[in-house]
Amino acid sequence: MGVSFLGGPYPQRGVGVVAPFDFALDRELWRWVPDDVSLHLTRTPFVPVEVGLDLARLVSEHETLGDAVRALNAVAPEVVAYACTSGSFVGGVAGERAMCEAMTRAGALPSLTTSGALLAALEELGARRVALVTPYTVSVTESLEEYLAEAGITVTERAFMGLTRHIWKVPYRDVADMARRAARGAADALFVSCTNLPTYDVIPQLEAELRIPVISANQVTMWAALRQLGTRAVGPYQRLIDQAARRGPVLPEEQEGWA
């Protein structure tokens, strides 16, 4: 029997993603992506360094970024996103901009980073006072605070874990516990940092409980990349993405899948 009646495959638009070598949450990124968009991921070369400021600098070197983007050129994405928070804030605001310029030169296409997307998301939400949750050590967390301060964002409170490896194994309950501690101040929003920290399912619950927008590294990266394509990310009950959620938080018992 012929298959011509199927009519597919359907056209796909592409988002290139450059991730650190230890990135383990490919599946989480896909959850924000609509069906007509494909993600094309590549990773930076392995270096035997624990998570910290040194690693952040190594995985964000311009030569490394250029090689990664040139590898992605073969599949012709329409935008490239660098999916690493620490790697994109470690050089400050000017360093983040220089990273985008380096990626754009290598691929001749629009480029963005997680930390740049964070600032865009805070602007979208009108948030100037932010609570922070990170899995990082104190030095990396302080570097994030410095980046935000440089951009005119006030950090109201922070909670961090001091991890140097296996961040992707942190359970949702630990993320939620840190968020509750960090949200004690008068914040306009809460940011959960690190693209290797799982957050997709915990965002709606925390927004309902804390009554402020909750955004995460992977969420803002995908939101910004898809916005560049002129399309929208998929994130029910997430205020950054779901306009209906901005009219008021949805209580956990009203959300599908929460028990």
Question: What report would you give on this structure?
Answer:
- By secondary structure, the protein is α/β, with parallel strands linked by helices.
- The chain has 11 helices and 8 strands.
- It has helices at 26-31, 53-58, 62-72, 85-89, 92-107, 114-125, 138-150, 172-182, 202-210, 217-228, 243-246; strands at residues 13-19, 37-43, 79-82, 111-113, 129-134, 154-160, 189-192, 214-216.
- The protein has a 4-stranded parallel β-sheet, with helices on both faces.
- Helix 9 links the parallel strand 7 (189-192) and strand 8.
- Helix 3 packs parallel to helix 5 and helix 6 (114-125) crosses helix 10 (217-228).
- The longest helix has 16 residues, at 92-107.
- Residues 254-259 have low confidence and may be disordered.
